[in-house]
Amino acid sequence: MLPTKIVLIGAGSASFGLNSLGALMGSLRLRGSHLALVDRNAEALAPMGRLAQRLNREWGADMTITTHTHHADALEGAAFVVSAIEAPPREDLWRSDFEIPLKYGVRQPYAENGGPGGFIHAARNIGPVLEIVHDMERLCPDAWLINFTNPMMRICDAVARYSTIKVVGLCHQINAGYAMVGKALANDLGLEVPADFTDCHASPETNPPRGLMTRRAKKVIDIKAAGLNHFTWMLDVRDKRNGADLYPLFAQRWAAMDERFEPLTRRVYAAFGLFPIPGDEHLSEYLPWLSDPVTRPWEKYDVSLYDWTYWTRHRPISHAEIARLADGDEPLEHLRDADSEGALEMIENMAGAGEHYHLAVNLPNQGYIPNLPDGAIVEVPGLVSGMGVQGVGVGTLPEPVAELCRREIATVRLGVDAAVHGDRQAALQCLLLDPVITDMDVARNILDDYLETYRNYLSQFW
What we know:
The protein is α/β, with parallel strands linked by helices. The protein has a domain at about 175-280. It has helices spanning about 15-25, 40-60, 90-100, 115-140, 150-160, 175-185, 185-190, 205-220, 245-255, 265-270, 280-285, 295-300, 310-325, 345-350, 400-420, 425-435, 440-455, and strands at about 5-10, 35-40, 65-70, 80-85, 145, 165-170, 220-230, 230-240, 275, 355-365, 375-385, 390. The strands form 3 sheets. Strands 3-2-1-4-5-6 form a 6-stranded parallel beta sheet, with helices on both faces. The chain has a 3-stranded antiparallel beta sheet with strand order 7-8-9. A hairpin with a 2-residue loop joins strand 11 (about 375-385) and strand 12 (about 390). The longest helix has 25 residues, at about 115-140. The protein is globular.
C-alpha cells in the first residue's frame, strides 16, 4: 500500500471525473490514501462525492474522501494534483472560438489547440491554472501537477515558466497512431480490423471502433513518437514479438490503402517522409495549408469539426448516470475498467518508487529532442519512478518537421506570455505567427473581437 494524498480538480466532469475516480479507487496500491475531490460546480460535485463514498464502501478502498468547491481548501499536504479544468460553458465557448474568426474570413480547422482558437482557449484557462499552481507553491510545493487541461502545450508551458511546480501533461492521442498503423498492418500481424473503423475523427460514432483497433494493435506493436502535443511523429515502429522494424513494411501497406482513409495524414507523410501520429483533425490545427477560403482544403481532406451540439446534449445524460451510480441504482463493476489516461500510473509509480514506461508525456525539453528549444514543452516517451517523470531522449527530428514544431513553439510562448501579462502586443504577434492567419488587419480584428467577447474571462487585458 502507498497511502498518499491526491487532489482531483475538475472532479465533477462527466468523463474525466468518473474515469479518474474509478481508476484511483480501484487501485490496490493506493488503498488508505486521501482523495480530495474539487469542483467549483457544487451540483456536479455532490453526486461524485456520494459515488466515491459508495466505491469506498463496496470496493474496500479504505480511503479518506473529502469534497471541496475551492482547490485551496484541498491542497495542503497533497503529493499529487490532477487537473482537468475548463472555463465554462465549454462547448459554447469552443463554438464561439471558431465562429468569431469566420466574420473576418478565417476558417480554422478545429479551433481547440492551434490557430486563433488555441490562443484564446489557452488565455481563458491559464489564469485559473496559475491560480491553482501558485496556491500549490504555498500549500504543497513539492507536489506534481498532472495536467489534462487543453491546450496541453500552452497550459504546461505556463506552469513550467511561471511557477516552481513540477508539471507533466498527459494525452491519449498517440492511440490514433496505433489505430492507423494497426489497420495498415492488420493482415501481416493477424489483427482483426473493426468493420466500422473508417477514420480517426473525434466523434461518438468512430470512437469505439478506433479504440478497439488501438487495443488490438498495442498488444503486438510498439511505437516511438515525439514532437509536440497533437503534433507528434512516428520515429520507430516494431513488432513486440520479435523486435522486427515494421516501418518499411508499414510504408508499403499504407501506400496501398484506400486514399480516403486519413487523407491529410497521407499527404503530410508523403511530403515529409515521417508519419504524423495524431490523425487528420488534430494534425490540421498546426499546418498552414488548411484554411484557404478559395481552395477550401477542409473539404478536400474531409476535416470535420467537433460536434459541439452532440456533446452539449450528452453531458446531462452522463451526469444523470453518475447520480444513479451514486445512489446505488446501477452496478459499479464497469468502473473497474476505467482508464485514468495515465494519472494512475503516474501516481502509483512516483509514490511507490516503481518503474513505468509511458508512451507519451509532455515535459519541458531537456535535450530530449535536441533540435527543439530547451524548456519548450515537448511530447516524448517517459519513464516514471520515485524520481518523478523523465523524458526519453529520442534524437533530432528531420529539419523540415522540426521547423514546423519550432514555429508552433514560438507561437505558443508568445500566447502564454500574452495571457499571463495581459499583453496585447504579444497576443497580436502570437496570431501573426500562427499558420492560420495570412493578413495583419484580420489578425488585429480577430484579437479585438476575442478580447471584447470574452472580457469577463480575460480581465488581465483590460
